[in-house]
Amino acid sequence: MTDALLVEKRAGALWCTINRPKRRNALSAEVVERLLEALGSCKAEDGTRAIVITGAGDRAFCAGGDLSDSLSIKPENVARGYADLLGAMVEAEVPIIGRINGDCLGGGIGLVCCCDLAVAVDTARFSTPEVKLGLFPMIIAPLMERFVGPRLTREMIYAARSITAQEAERAGLVNIAVERNLLDTTVESWIARISEASAHAIAAGRRELERARWLAPWENAENLSRAFGRLAEGEDARSRIAAFLARKQKA
After folding, report:
1. How far apart are alpha carbons 33 and 7 in whole angstroms?
2. pLDDT below 70 — which residues of the chain?
3. What string of DSSP letters covers the chain?
4. Strand segments (E) across the chain
């Protein structure tokens, strides 16, 4: 067990920091597993009023899935684990706040989609570059369409277009884009307001609201995971990923 995920209780909130700055806070299998554990242990009755998910450092919030995992773990299982994580976020008893401290790619956008509130540093960029590697963001595409609409979603995916934090705010992917020194102030303000409300009412209402909003994608998670696995195990994706990892090792 490493310190790939830092978990800290602070002022009524559980802060989960993806601590892999050298990997742009990519989601390794360990990070996914530990996030699942943290979400499962968080109960409103224990005095936790919110969960904050962020990344270490200033460069990236989350670069999506760690492609190195594809060398040792069946891609379908990687996708299924990620889908389970998003499902656990949806089922959480307390609101989840995304503190987007830097660039957000691929699966990182899925995390943002499953947060109740999200604040992004104004220099962050959001992108889904999977198609460049012969992959497709099977799990997050339906979620993105619900937030930013089908046109922008498909442009971001098919044309690998990145958008700024300001564009993400206008599209509804994040609540607000702020200067870096206002990230924590914004998060802490939300936590304080949530703490003044009824924990029971929020837990009950959030559960039903999220189920109504996300039911269809979760019902289809197995099919989407299998489709991702077939792509990731294909020759095109394998050769592109191998070339990408080779370039990273030389850098």
Report:
1. 13
2. 1, 44, 70-71, 210-220
3. --SSEEEEEETTEEEEEE--GGGTT-B-HHHHHHHHHHHHH--GGGT--EEEEEESSSSEEE--B-GGGGGTS-HHHHHHHHHHHHHHHHH-SS-EEEEE-SEEETHHHHHHHT-SEEEEETT-EEE--GGGGT---TTTHHHHHHHH-HHHHHHHHHS---EEHHHHHHHTSSSEEE-GGGHHHHHHHHHHHHHHS-HHHHHHHHHHHHHHHHHHHHHTHHHHHHHHHHHHTSHHHHHHHHHHHHHHHH-
4. 5-10, 13-18, 50-55, 60-62, 96-100, 103-105, 117-121, 125-127, 163-164, 176-178
Which element (helix H / strand E) includes 84? Answer: helix 75-91
Domains, the chain: 5-181 (3.90.226.10)
Q: Output the pLDDT for position 125.
A: 98
pTM, two decimals, is: 0.88
CA distance 247 to 138: 25
- Give the C-alpha separation, 134 to 156, whole Å: 15
Residue of 26, 37, 25 lying closest to 1 (CA atoms): 37
Q: Please count the residues of the chain.
A: 251
Assigned token pair, 243? 């070339």
Of 170, 169, 148, the closest CA to residue 157 belongs to 148
pLDDT tens digit string along 67-93?
Answer: 887 667 888 888 899 999 999 998 898
Q: Are 53 and 25 in contact (CB under 8 A)?
A: no
